[in-house]
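Input/output pair, single chain:
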Amino acid sequence: MDRESALKVFESLGSSLRLDIFCLLVHAGERGQVAGEIAEALEIPATNLSFHLKAMLAASLVTVRQEGRFLRYRANVPHMLRVLAFVMENCAGTARSEGECPLRSKRAATAAAREAAPNG
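Output:
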């Protein structure tokens, strides 16, 4: 897991509708739901749903499988667990007693090294 992948997930879930879709699919479990069921449950137009599902696929929040003429969507729970583990590993724990996020520290150190490097 890297920072960019985690950011895609959080940016995608910044939409309340996408969070609702993800929660709905988590509750559906392995069975998942076809797009029409999701649209009906959330009372949204299929075109609107398609836009949001595309963004969620790009963030790996959902998986999709063709079943005949239908697309069945499932929450990608293992990916979400990896994102949460990444956050906990990099931004929590006893080593963080000074309140500093190591991801931000790594970025600051990289920027400082670039500034100190001779122009070449």
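Strands lie at 33-34, 62-67, 70-75. Residues 77-91 form the longest helix (15 residues).
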